[in-house]
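## tool: complex_structure
## caller: assistant
## args:
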Amino acid sequence: MQKEVLVHVEHLYRFYGHTCAVSDISFELAKGEVLGFLGPNGAGKSSTMQMITGNLAPSAGSITVQGMDLLDKPKRAKHGIGYLPEQPPVYRELTVDEYLSYCACLNRIARGERDRAVRTAKERCGLGDVGRRLIGNLSKGFRQRVGIAQAIIHTPAVVILDEPTVGLDPIQIREIRALVRELGEEHGIILSTHILPEVQATCNRVQIIHQGQLVFADSITGLEQRLNATSLIAAFHAAPDLDSLQQLPGVSTVETLTDGRIRIHYLDTDPSEALIEQAVASHWRLYELAPERRTLEQIFIELTCSEPAAAAPGEAA
Amino acid sequence: MIFTIAARELRSLFLSPLAWAVLAVVQFILAYLYLSQVDAYLVWQPRLAAIEGAPGVSDIIIAPLLADAAIILLLVTPLITMRVLSEERRNCTLSLLFSAPVSMTEIIIGKYLGVLAFFLILLGLLALMPLALLAGTDIDLGKLATGLLGLALLLAAFTAIGLFMSALTEQPTIAAISTFGLLLLLWIIDWAGSSDGQTSGLFAYLSMLRHYQTLLKGLFHSTDVIYYLLIIFLFLGLSIRRLDADRLSH
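## result:
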């Protein structure tokens, strides 16, 4: 399946003095993808996004947007980009309508289509009723939406959102996520966040950045597989000795937990069925059996904590 | 694109009370000075009538008025220019311009024209006062024109310097005080070395006041105009460079 590549980033570096904020990052974004950027604070997420949007000059490397080099043809490349920085770049003294039509002008939308563009952007971001209010008087959530409306007003091919749900209430977060998914159908979206479930809820690709380097890049389905259980938790009223559990096909190690339950690690084949059959046959009186799922958080911590990742359980599986 | 940015700048200026306050206060003070000049002229008029080749209305009312206006505007310009770029940087709104398909040059020129338009409005209001004399007497329109041209060039130079200072910093107040400092220095720079009677040629050339004075006398020297244009282009160029440097290092 050949997808239209919208953003192509190659060997991107960025130094602040002697500190290296972004180091050798390369990736691609295709149409219809929502790419989640994860990373602890100061990992280089925002710097990378600022470089893709032309707010920051890279120290080395190349960025192409829709086949146009951002450094050679900045104006034409920027046409295809909508950007919401961490702080929504809004003028507090303007009304929402004034602000959005200014943004429409800045993005060279023809005079006749400006009103329509403003109306569509407002509709999509749920700003229909606040058009005539001053941005300074709006709540943080609405200001964030104005920021998003600004980023999509010229229907750019790529929308880049830096922590779009920070400071919003849970309902607004759900709305924004739904909006992102909806936008993701026709645009390419890059989204940064440190809220992990958000990535699982909205993105179809994930990249984790740590200390300026890309330490993990996979599709969300690939991630799901990584998240899959590699261990079971079982509880018995008449617990068998660990050796007989160890005999089950696929089981690698068995340990007793402090509360009396037993954790069974396995490699390739899931021993649940065999365990149940055995338990019934041998009257172990099994009353609880649950696969243990790893969370994205665990993967994230494994990758970004300073201990070597290989030491983490399940990594070898 | 330049005009879009300029229009928003001008609009934002008038949305804040500062612009209105500045217009009102400057207009009030200048009106007071104007009236006192008119008053003085009325007192001297009988004596002036006796003198051959005595200074006329233009010399006694208009030239001092425009000279005073320059000083007042030197004090006021930093207040208007201080927030042009520094406040955008502070509110993180610069990224809106940076990620839009506009060049640094367009941003700077747009902002410059927006602020300059405000000062030209101020100048227009100011020009009404001398023009009101037309109702009662003849004035030297040529002299008035060079005077107003001089003030316009002066304001354009002030604005360019203020814009550059605003591009340097994130704090509007710092931009204001450094603009004021630089403007005042350029105003009085020819004082250096002039105490012993002979002025240094370089310092005299650098002084904004000198160039303004010749225009006020009704003398149109291209050197004076070129001087102002050089200042404008120099500081606009520096501002563009400075804004570009924003992307290079933080």
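## assistant note: The interface with chain B takes residues 16, 50, 53-57, 74-76, 78-79, 81-83, 85-87, 89-94, 102-103, 105-108, 150 of chain A (CB under 8 Å). The two ends of chain A are 29 Å apart (CA to CA). Handing back to user.
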